[in-house]
Design brief:
- It contains one helix and twelve strands.
- The chain is mainly β.
Length: 167
């Protein structure tokens, strides 16, 4: 299933909406800034926090934790220098390791597990820079894959100097 992520660039406080391909709003990302630990909350349309994204401060590798009900369900690590191998690695609570591969600078990448593509993230079809698509091929992990896509996208925005968020 395809999901669309739309950032509201000129809002007083930063937020993004995750919608289905039929424009049905599913989740809102509340981006709470100006903290030592940047925190994003994924909230469903009823106001329930589905996931929390926390960027750890003062770490050697850029590390992001994804929490659900207070427990860490995933840890994303980004290498500062990449000579060989993957730039982003994800460790899940259940022991699985995911890789994020593709053309990260053009925001065309896949989330993979053992060679199988779980999701494809693309800005190819959008002329505006505040929207992108997440094609989820693994429905049982849909929310987690969307959260991972948002984490990687915002990390890349910061690396490019766009500084839209503190994540």
């Amino acid at each position: 299933m395809r999901y669309l992520i739309r950032d509201r660039m000129f809002a007083f406080h930063e937020e993004a909406w995750i919608e289905t391909e039929h424009r049905e709003k599913l989740y809102r990302v509340n981006k709470k800034l100006f903290r030592l630990r940047s925190t994003f909350h994924f909230v469903d349309t009823r106001g329930t926090v589905v996931a929390t994204i926390v960027r750890k401060a003062l770490t050697w590798h850029h590390t992001i934790l994804i929490k659900h009900e207070g427990e860490v369900v995933a840890k994303i690590s980004k290498r500062f220098l990449k000579l060989f191998g993957d730039r982003f690695k994800v460790r899940l609570r259940d022991g699985r390791q995911l890789k994020i591969v593709g053309n990260l600078w053009d925001r065309e990448f896949d989330i993979r597990h053992e060679g199988t593509t779980l999701a494809h993230i693309s800005r190819r079809w959008f002329s505006i820079r505040d929207a992108y698509a997440v094609d989820v091929l693994s429905p049982q992990d849909a929310v987690l894959l969307i959260v991972l896509a948002v984490c990687v996208d915002h990390t890349l925005q910061d690396l490019k100097g766009e500084k839209i968020t503190n994540l």
